[in-house]
Each structure stands twice: as C-alpha cells, then as structure tokens.
Amino acid sequence: MNDIPWIEIIVGLVVAAGGGASLAYLLPRARRRSRTPGEGGPDTRAGSGTGTIEAERPEVEEAAPEVTGPASGTLVAEPELERPEPVAGRMVRLRDRLARSGSPLGARLLAVLSRDSLTEDDWDEMEELLLLADVGAGPTADLLGALRTRVRVLGVGEPAAVRTLLREELVKLVDPALDRSLRTTGPTTDDGTPLPAVMLVVGVNGTGKTTTVGKLARVLVAEGRSVVLGAADTFRAAAADQLQTWGARVGVPTVRSDRDGADPASVAFEAVTRGRDEKVDVVLVDTAGRLQNKAGLMDELGKIVRVSSKVVAPSEVLLVLDATTGQNGLTQARVFGEVAGVTGIVLTKLDGTAKGGIVVQVQRELGVPVKLVGLGEGPDDLAPFDAEQFVDGILG
Ligand SMILES: Nc1nc2c(ncn2[C@@H]2O[C@H](COP(=O)(O)OP(=O)(O)OP(=O)(O)O)[C@@H](O)[C@H]2O)c(=O)[nH]1
Prior knowledge:
alpha/beta; Four Helix Bundle (Hemerythrin (Met), subunit A); Rossmann fold; nine-stranded mixed beta sheet; 13 helices; 47% helix; cytoplasm; GTP binding; transmembrane helix; signal recognition particle binding
C-alpha cells in the first residue's frame, strides 16, 4: 500500500471526477429537460417523460429515444441539403401519370359516351366501368342518373359536349367543396403560446406511410416550415432508418428509439415534446403498419394518439390508403376512423391503378376528405388533392 505513489492516487481521483461528469450528462435527463426551451443548442437526446403521463407510459423504463439529424450537434460534415420541389403545380406535373394509370376508365367511358345513340347496353357498360374503378354502387347510380337526364334533356350528342357533361358529373362526385387543407398550424396554449401542429400518419402495412411522411416533410420544408419527425414505427427495424434518411435529405431531425420494439407511444411522446420545446411548426409521426382487425395493435394506436395528445393534441391524423387495394380501403378507413379519429386520407400508388374511384367512396361514407395523393416513388411525387385536376387526370 505504501508503494502506491501519491501522484497516482491524485491522478486517479481526477479521472474519476471526470467520469462522474460524463455520467451526469447521461443520467439526470429530467434535470436537463428543465432547460429553458431554445436556450443554448438543441438537446441532442430527447429526455424521458415529464411525469405527467404516468398512466400511459410504458411500465418498463424506456431508454430515451435518440434525436438524429442536423440538430444533433455532432461534428459531422453536413451533406448538401436537397431543395424540394414547390408544391404549387405538382398535380399538373403528375396528371400525365394519373392519365396513364386511369386511362382505362376515362378513355373507355368517353368511348361509350361518344356513340351515336346510347342504348341500355351502353349505360350498363358504363356502370360496369365505374364499378370496376371502385366508384361504388351508390355514387355510380347517382352519376349515371344525372348523366342520363342531362344527355336526354340537352340532346347532347357530339363527343366534346358529352365529355364536358361527364367531367362535370365526376367533379361533383369527387366534391370540390370539401375542405382539403392540411392543418399545419397547431393550437395555442391558454397564454397564447403557439404549439406545433402534430400530424400522425397511420394505416395498414405497406401502404406507403413512411414514404408519405418523408414526402410530406419535403412539402412542409418547401413551404418554409420547421419540422421534427417521430419514428414511432418501432416494429419494422428499417423504418426508423428509412425515415431518418428522408429527413436528413432536407435538414429535418428525427426522434427515434435505439431499440427495436420500443414503446411507440413513448417515441411519439418524445417527438411531440421536442417539437413543443423547440417551437417547431410541425411534428410528423410515422406509425407502424397494422391490420385493422388486430385488436391489440389498434389499442396500441389508440394509446399513441392519447399519449401524444397529453403534450399537444394532433391537428391531423392522416390515414394512408393504397389505391390499388380498392374496396378493402373502405373497411380500413372505418376502423382507423373509430380508433384514431382520422381527419384526412392520403391515397398512395394512384400512379399504378385505375381504381381511383375509392376517393369517392371513402369521402362519401366517412365524410373524411382525401387531402393528398401519392403518384410515384419519387421524393416529390406527393400532391395536394384537387378534385378538378384529379378528374382531368382520369379523363386523360
Ligand atoms: N408507385 C408508388 N409507390 C409508392 C407510393 N407511395 C409509396 N410507395 C412505395 O410503397 C412501398 C412501401 O412504402 P413504405 O413507405 O415503406 O410503406 P409503409 O406503410 O411505411 O410500410 P410498413 O411500415 O411496413 O407498414 C415502397 O416501395 C414505396 O416506395 C406511390 O405513391 N406510388
């Protein structure tokens, strides 16, 4: 013992004190969170809960989700950020794609309507075409009824005039009067402090949720909004990486867990908390795909909504529907609507199907408007839905 030089003991004490300091950085998350929002640099590790949502928090102590992206403060050279395409005019750019995918409906309807005098067989053929495009029995009957009357009353025969009538009736069916604006402005607290608009993105597996969140982040960045992403899809291992890559391309940070299978409500909570604390405009939360008939998973979704709402109530719950799945989308929309309070539909993969008629059915049966459409896999292939342009697209 006497052989230990005093200088080594002193050095040892100094090193231990240094180690204590770095541990202090890792441990008392609650204390670090009490920092005034906006003070100093952004907190690169979102902390755990504030203690106000104990009943909803996972019983097991969760590791705090990580925050990645440009706000992390690491000394990594920033990749050059992409400049997303402006939102205005996107649907026009993508209309050709819609025309190509929807042409069987538009072109064939027009072909029938251009016949010299329309027989009962012609009307039956049109009914079949509309049903095949998933317009649904009720809306199809309404459209054909109105069209028949107008063709007869007006004595319309020439193709251009018939096309105009068909266009008008289709637009009516898709309902241009619906409010399709995205609520990108959040609520305010009682003292008038603005809170972020929280958008949750939900739906069954593989419909394009993560891609949509990524594309939507670009839309918001293009409009000058600040955004935080929340990777609450903790079920699919690659989903958080996928989301983070989307965000990094446009300089948007991602809150994620470093552990697969972490409680998604916890990640959503942290993302919304970070968005609030850093006063960002919009928090976009991606959730795992889930079948609407799996009660446990739907309960989990309900919990994500409730837990996020403890910080800021969602401004939008967007249901992502794959247009190619047609009628099945209707059942999904009903159940998700009940569990998560869906406020808008994103219809993806419209570039790959002639079944765009589901737009009409979903809106009519659920009273929820289609707000966005996905028309390709490209980063800017997401457009605000516009009834007239949509109809022009399918009429070619
Ligand atoms: N053609 C086309 N493909 C799309 C569109 N939107 C998404 N996709 C593709 O659909 C596939 C699934 O997309 P994801 O975003 O991973 O789907 P997800 O819903 O997050 O999947 P889960 O998390 O497994 O439920 C990917 O290959 C996307 O590129 C679209 O509008 N058009």
